[in-house]
Amino acid sequence: MKLHWQILIALVAAFAAGSLLGDVPLFIRTMDMLGTMFLNALRMLIVPLIVSAMICALLGIGNGAGLARLGGRTVVYFLATTLISVTTALVLVNLVSPGIIDGVPAGERLGLSADTARVTESVADRGQGDLLDILVRMIPVNVFEAAAKADMLGLIFFSILFGYFAARLPDGLMQSQQRFWQGIYEVMIRLTGLIMWFAPLGVFALVSQTVAQTGLDALLPLALFFGVVVAALLIQMLVWLPLILRSFGLSPLRHFKAVGPALLTAFSTSSSAATLPVSLQRLQSEAGVSAKVSGFVMPLGTTVNMNGTALYECAAALFIAQAYGLELSILTQFTVVALALLTSIGVAGIPSASLVAIAIILTAVGLPLEGVGLILAVDRVLDMARTAVNVFGDTVGAVLMAHLEGEQVLPGATEAQAAVAPPASDASG
Predict the structure, then answer these.
(1) Which residues neighbour 306 within 8 Å (Cβ) at sequence distance 6 or greater?
(2) 161-193 confidence digits (pLDDT tens)
(3) What are the pLDDT digits (tens) for 77-114?
(4) Does the pLDDT of residue 319 top 80, yes or no?
(5) CA–CA separation, 409 vs 219, rounded Å?
(6) What angle do CA 70, 232, 240 make, to 5 degrees?
């Protein structure tokens, strides 16, 4: 059975088991243990995989012109797709008005979550400094400390510098560096293949635990807001991004088949970083994207390209404004759009990043931070959905950049795929 079908079956079983056994403490503890082990196994690969992938990519790109071309196209793609996702949220929330129930602002009727005070306290000291802090976090004081803390911004910055100058060493030294880092990268890809054998069990554990602890009943009071966000995420994932692929003559269906296990892993783990090993493996073994392009685009996208997160931040801020009975002007709504774009990048390395970003937006438009409490009940489930959209946006970018670089991508069962895909594809499960 194909891996994506195994994971889909595990997802369905997880929703059923979580709903039925949510009151059994032993079940929750066991699922927590298994889910944590699966997540830890994926996270174990992140640091060596990011560093080796970025350095190998820079060594493969070669001269500065090639790096500037690939980097420029990647940044334009990231900005364009994130703007599209935020605009989609803006339009849907204004059309449906999920914060208005029977013509009355929903704030009083919904009430605030019991965890509101704790969340408000944790985000109250956040502000525009978090956006500027991205520049400071880019340069690690100690690269080994950055690795220990999995500080992706610092690791990517160091890896880009290292790879850029390693590519300019004399031939003998450059080739030694290339063999060394390529060896590490290939080992990480093969380890990913081993871990993915256990993906259905890991997905079952993570999702069933979430359903058991959250409970589907918690979604009912916020069903309209939940539905609007899910609809916007689906439009981004099933309409806009596939249209981009189609406009360049690429098959969206083949792309979905190639990266399906990565999307399901992203949904179950709620972590773009933890999904990165799977995304890289699937792009190379199934989509035909070279290590040079995927190793550059994917780590960068995992850190700064957040289609789903930016969309959610915009929708949540507008929903909270509606729930408090505040009608935002067009100018204020565009301010929300701009802040959603910036904060999806600027607070990427902060725990509970979306809640912190939403708090920054609320402060900027004059709404109380307590409004975050309105969305806490559905935040965990929507986090799973928006992470899948984040990862899908990154994989579309990698395939598109590879296509623009002249690579044969999404070839299906052709000789071209065999020519591009690395030997590690045998370990994909």
Answers:
(1) 82, 272, 344, 345, 348, 390
(2) 999 999 989 989 999 999 999 999 999 999 998
(3) 999 999 999 999 999 999 999 988 777 787 766 665 54
(4) yes
(5) 40
(6) 40
**pLDDT exceeds 50 at position 370:** yes
- 8 A C-beta contact, residue 52 and residue 185: yes
CB 117 within 8 A of CB 371: no
Q: Helix, strand, coil shares of the chain as percentages rounded to 5?
A: 80, 0, 20
Closest C-alpha to 372, from 392, 352, 346, 397: 352
Q: Whose CA is closest to 306, among 126, 76, 73, 85?
A: 85
Q: Residue for token digits 């690969």?
A: 45
Q: Helix 64-96 to helix 25-61 angle, to the nearest 10 degrees? A: 140
- The alpha carbon dihedral of 352, 355, 360, 363 has a sign of negative
pTM of this structure: 0.84
Tokens found for residue 79:
């900005």
Q: What distances in angstroms separate CA 158 from CA 12, 183, 296, 349, one per listed residue?
A: 41, 19, 13, 16
Report d(CA 15, CA 209) in Å as an integer.
Answer: 9
What element of type H or E holds 212?
A: helix 199-214
What's the one-letter identity of residue 280? L
Pairing outcome for strands 104-105 and 100-101 = antiparallel
**Distance between CA atoms of residues 386 and 133, nearest Å:** 24
Domains located in the chain, CATH noted: 3-427 (1.10.3860.10)
pLDDT surpassing 90 at residue 386? yes
